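[Discussion] Sanity-checking designs against the backbone

I'm trying to build intuition for which residues belong where. Below is a structure token string of 157 positions. I'd appreciate it if someone posts a full sequence so I can compare it with mine line by line.
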């Protein structure tokens, strides 16, 4: 049962991220998995507090997800002292590891300003919960899709 609901810490962290990245239309963080895989959320979070460190438009429009993730992790290491705890290739997937993302975002939370409004927390509580799929369910669906593609390819040979 505990796995079905977000902890209060997760709600606060997600509220902080959403509040911090609100001015970045390309970014809509609704979870600690898929919302991070393109690298935009990490960069927007950093840029929202330290816009002097890089040009957002260059990072947002001209780089691949792996490049954007690498950029964010390098900026955080160089300017905020946060070790590169994640490999960009591990995050730039269909379903990155939630605990790893939480750990890294928590590291950012500890060094960046931490003001969270009650409005931001209420907003997180209103997010739809239907998109919750366990990693195992995601892998099972992915394998079924691959098998289906293989069967389709085989029938056309």
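Best answer:
Here's mine. Compare freely.
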């Amino acid at each position: 049962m505990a796995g079905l609901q977000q902890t209060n810490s997760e709600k606060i962290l997600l509220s902080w991220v959403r509040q911090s990245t609100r001015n970045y239309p390309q970014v809509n963080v609704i979870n600690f998995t898929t919302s991070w895989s393109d690298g935009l959320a990490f960069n927007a979070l950093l840029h929202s507090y330290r816009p002097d460190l890089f040009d957002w438009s260059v990072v947002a429009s001209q780089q691949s997800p792996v490049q954007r993730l690498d950029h964010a992790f390098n900026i955080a290491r160089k300017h905020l002292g946060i070790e590169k705890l994640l490999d960009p290739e591990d995050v730039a997937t269909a379903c990155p590891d939630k605990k790893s993302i939480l750990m890294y975002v928590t590291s950012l939370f500890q060094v960046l300003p931490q003001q969270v409004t009650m409005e931001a927390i209420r907003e997180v509580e209103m997010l739809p919960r239907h998109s919750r799929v366990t990693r195992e369910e995601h892998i099972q669906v992915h394998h079924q899709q691959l098998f289906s593609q293989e069967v389709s390819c085989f029938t056309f040979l």
